[in-house]
Amino acid sequence: MHHSIANPIGNKVYARALACIFICAITLALSTRFAYASEPWQLYKSNAWLDIYYRKLPNGLLQVKGHATLDKTTTKSVIGALTDTDSIPLWVDNIQSVTLLAAPQENRSLVHTKLNLPWPVADREMLTLSCFSQIEDNQHLLQIRSVFAPEKSDSLIRITEIVIDWEFFERTSGLDITYTAQAQLNGSVPQWLANKASLKNTQKMLQALKAHLATQQAQLSNWTLLPGDCDGF
Asked: Cα separations (Å) of 121 from 20, 28, 168, 170, 219?
């Protein structure tokens, strides 16, 4: 279906669990609570096709940015991968399910995601609304934001304050992607491990996306999420 991140042993277990928290989809950067002004971007990792940066925001969250250059790839194919709710758990680690709840407009999707995390980190959930728009002939933007809804007493811990942007710029030979993300994990998790995991998982998610796209036999010719108006989103 289509439409649609302390002892030595304890630290290792926590690190392993947190290394799986953020997705595409959905890979998330977590808060440090004492920043009062945005800091300059700092480089985390870099290779021939991918650069990962981070900075603190005025609201205290750590924002992560990934810039990827993918040859022989189109925006339609990436959107197809990000909106294929059945296949996302197959190529993104520790995703139990991604469920399309509603499509209020042809370019918007309300999605519920369950994260199945290793012990001792409790499982999480996300409720997000996405909006997809075309900026220029060769430029598109996918925005993903958390949606407020009352939590049930038996519900999973919910990730909140999600702000994710996927910017796509098509070139003759491929696609430039700029991915930025921030969110509040909530629950009891060591902050330094959470921040470290958010950086590692941005890199891991974009690498997984590249590998997943390479397995596709052909580029998509049709949109799985139509671009439309996102004014006021």
From this structure: 10, 16, 33, 39, 38
pLDDT per position as a tens digit, 89-104: 999 988 999 999 999 9
Residue 208: enclosing H or E segment and its boundaries? helix 191-214
How long, in residues, is the chain?
Answer: 233
Who contacts 24 (Cβ-Cβ below 8 Å, separation ≥6)? 5, 81, 82, 88, 92, 205, 209
At 51-65, the pLDDT tens digits run: 999 998 887 788 999
> Domains of the chain: which residue ranges?
8-214
Burial label, 149 (beta-carbon count in 10 A; 0-12, 13-18, 19+): exposed
Closest-CA residue to 52 (of 84, 29, 32, 35): 29
Whether residue 74 has pLDDT greater than 70: yes
Asked if residue 134 has pLDDT above 90, the reply is yes
Buried-state track 29-42, b at ≥16 Cβ within 10 A, e below 16: bbbeeebeeeeeee
Q: Which CATH class is domain 8-214?
A: alpha beta
- HEC states along 66-120? EEEEEECCCHHHHHHHHHECCCHHHHCCCEEEEEEEEEEECCEEEEEEEECCCCC
CB within 8 A of 205, min separation 6: which ones? 5, 22, 23, 24, 25, 26, 27, 92
β pairing state of 124-136 and 157-158? parallel
158 within 8 A of 184, measured Cβ to Cβ? no
